[in-house]
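Dear Dr. V.,

Thank you for agreeing to look over these. As mentioned in my earlier message, I'm a first-year student in the group and I'm still getting used to reading structure tokens, so any feedback on how I've presented them would be very welcome. I ran two proteins. I've put each sequence directly above its structure. The first is here:
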Amino acid sequence: MKKSIAALTASLLLLATGCQEEIAAQPDLTLEQKPETKILVTLGDSISAGYGLDAPETQRYSAFLTEMLHAHDENDWRDCNYAVSGDDCSDLLQRLYDGKAIRLPAADEIVIYIGANNLLFPYKTYIQNILSENSTPESQTAAKKTLDLEIDKGLNRLEADLDTMYQWIRERNTVDEAPIYLLNIYNPYADLTDETLPSSDVLMREYAEEQITRCNQVLSDFAAAHDDIHLVDIAEPFAQCGEAPILGEIEPRNIWTIDPHPNTEGQKIIAETIFSAIKEYRNETSL
């Protein structure tokens, strides 16, 4: 009996070995590899949300970027866009605290565009003050000083909130320190030719350029201090356009009628610029 059992065991082992060799010799039987699901998380304000576009879900830069990423690496990229119109840096930080960016822990690429409203909100208040029925030359001068002071505070707050934001993301993101792409701010008023700040001899385009340059320096310095944050310069390609690719094309063009948000072409420019930065980073890390 023992001999028979041993013989039967040997026969089964030989049969199993033979089956394994046969399967190994037939690659047609292996399962086809499916594309991996990847997550792009976008944080920001109305520019990232696609404000003013006919179809934001397909025309904002994050939608174009996921298409580019899919075509490049054939993975299944998901556009997880948590940008909210009107947010400044502190609003965005609060949304993170509130758990609104639910896919952030699993993000493979993270894009952040924030800071424009830190400049725009003080300017809106300034405009309201000088257009008031009770406005006087003295109150307008005071309003301009307040504008400068509030922009200073906004930029200081941006610097502090970026640091807190970065720490919050790094503590929760689990994808081996997914790279963060931090966008700088473009100037939508660069091609204005004759509009000045109300009650001031300063050209609006010059004032905007000065303050946006300051904001971009904050963003640049912050990115330079962290190896896993990559500054994406979208200000330069916007500046190279003959006319800023924005929605505000109302005549006569001036600060009161221009909508500074990107049009579809502007959104594509942003997506292409980010995509170039991602490809450059991937090439560097693969060396």
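The second protein is here, in the same arrangement:
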Amino acid sequence: MKLLFAIKGLVVSGGGAERVFVDVVNALRARGHEILVATFDPVGESFFYDLDPAIPIHSLGHSGPAQPTRAAELPGIMRKVRNLVRSEAPDAVVAFMHSTFVPVGLGLLGTSVPFIASEHTDGIHYEGRRVQKLLRDTIFARSDAITIPSEASRLAQPERWQGRMHAIPNAIDFDALSARAGDSRREPVILSVGRLMAEKDYPTLIRAFALVAGEFPDWRLRIAGDGHLRGKIEAEMSRSGYGDRIDLLGYVRDTPAEYARASIFAISSLYESFGLVTAEALATGCPAVGFADCLGTAQLIRHEENGLLVDPGENRVEALAGALRRLMADPPLRETLGAAGPESVREYSLTSVADKWENMLSEIIQGGRA
């Protein structure tokens, strides 16, 4: 198959979707498929991610790294996408995330090339964002298929889209991550990984840590990630009274090393379509704590088996602090829950996920719209 994969940017570190994108295209290239990649990045910029050097890159040059795409840039992107598809004649086009599949899908209107929109955002994101929702729905209606990271996420979508949706989870490098489980040297560290965005709700995590930090003076909180809310997160750290025990790491290339040193992985997200970093932490044998009302978190954390799922109740901060306190005070429990982590996420190995992508794409190309 000749496949064009598109994503907004790979020049700077993004979130889980960018890493999944690179893993998927590299895996399909390794299986002998002809892969092309298009991004909106400026021409000539080096990528943060390790893309197979045999994959041709088409940088459309219409968005600055980590900057929102402006409405005025859309016509240029649409025109370049359309011209690229005409010249390369791929068997199918796949666009990751709504920031990409909207302009790419609009650019392909009226063409016959099969188009797959890969959604990586929970439906909650669109609440109160009427224009984004309208554009998403327009592209969903035009798409030959839609991928979504879990069956639970698929069933949470409007019924009119569910029949066209394929539940394909995000992939983790299971073999490499699980190998860390036996070699880990756990430290008194609570780790969280993710972009500094509102939906990650880091203020709740920082406040929860502040409630228990006095009881456990040897413990630290480490947050790996960056984003536009960095200033607000730093202010929250200062207000907590424990800023000297909270490390804001920025983007970290070797996140497996962070998982391996941590004793607890904490995910405070309000919503996740799939908790990629949670799956990675579990694969390394790090017990996880997160909220039961977050769909992507509840899909991965099995309460009292590989971690603790927290009922947010009336006070999210106190509820999370209670779960952290329990694990911080009980090393045998952490060891038991951590030991169950790798096997609980084996199904998300890259091999298994690449199989699903390959089968879905073959089905769409051979048979048309799902």
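From my reading of the second output: The chain has two domains: 2-171+349-367, 174-348. The first strand starts at residue 2 and ends at 7. Does that match how you would interpret it?

Kind regards,
E.
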